Amino acid sequence: xxxxxxxxxxxxxxxxxxxxxxxxxxxxxxxxxxxxGCDVGVAPTxxxxxxxxxxxxxxxxxxxxxxxxxxxxxxxTGEISARMLLAAGCSYVIIGHSERRQLFGExxxxxxxxxxxxLQDGLKVIFCVGETLDERESGITGDVxxxxxxxxxxxxxxxxxxxxxxEPVWAIGTGKTATSEQAQEVHALIRGxxxxxxxAEAADGLRIQYGGSVKPSNAVELFAMPxxxxxxxxxxxxxxxDFAAIVxxxx
Length: 251
What we know:
Layout (H helix, E strand, L loop, with lengths): L5 E5 L6 H15 L7 E5 L5 H8 L5 E4 L16 H6 L4 E4 L2 H7 L3 H14 L2 E6 L3 H5 L3 H12 L9 E5 L13 H19 L1 H6 L1 E4 L5 H8 L6 E4 L6 H11 L1
Parallel strand pairs: 1-2, 1-8, 2-3, 3-4, 4-5, 5-6, 6-7
Helix pairs in contact: 1-2, 1-11, 5-7, 7-8, 10-11
């Protein structure tokens, strides 16, 4: 099966509202109509979602959020719900990013509740998994990633609106990148794990992004791997020209 690549720019905690709108306009200008062969979107901060949505209006770029809570509403200071994200114009949400796991203590169980709620409420989910440097050097990458996949998808019946992003923690924001072969090995492992859970047909249709310091210089090689279906882009997505070059490599 030929899967449609997906590229998402995770802007993390960067850019004001005005700067986010400006970057969205610049990205549209850079990529033009050149992304018709794949799905492309951006994930600004919560405060910039509405204005970025306006900037993307009438374009084919999707709007994603960087996180969401597993309840509709309530006494959860600083949190935001899936239905709020939908109302702001989001069609995707990133869940389980390594920075959420490492810096904010999100466990597989918490990630699972968020994935389930987002899917239930109608958001598509980019579900992140990946190992730390210590885990890779200890030879337990497979165990860690398999645990995260199974834990994050526990009790979830269908994965038609799900994308998995493999992001080796040691390659995020460090300038290091897994070789295309290293990345492919883990992507194949993820697809095999999903096949155990949902069957071969569902696994074959699942899109798995790579999310570890993707740049214009390595995007073509990474995206040429048989189980890598695009990228979750961090730092390079903050530069419209660099992001457009990555999109071109995927499309």
